[in-house]
Amino acid sequence: xxxxxxxxxxxxxxxxxxxxxxxxxxxxxxxxxxxxxxxxxxxxxxxxxxxxxxxxxxxxxxxxxxxxxxxx
Length: 72
Hints:
The chain is 93% helix and 0% strand. It contains 1 helix and no strands. The radius of gyration is 31 Å and the shape is rod-shaped. It starts with a helix and ends with a helix.
């Protein structure tokens, strides 16, 4: 009887181990997707920052030129 009990307990541990492995794999996949999403957002934000800085530079250049052409 003890052998049967030990065998059942071992099979239960193996089943739980496979469940844990499946859960960990799903979580790792979700984390990978989240990290990739955040990397994409970061890259998009950096591109937007560059564009806005260029626009700001053009606006400053425009205002500098405009101030010099004003006669009082």
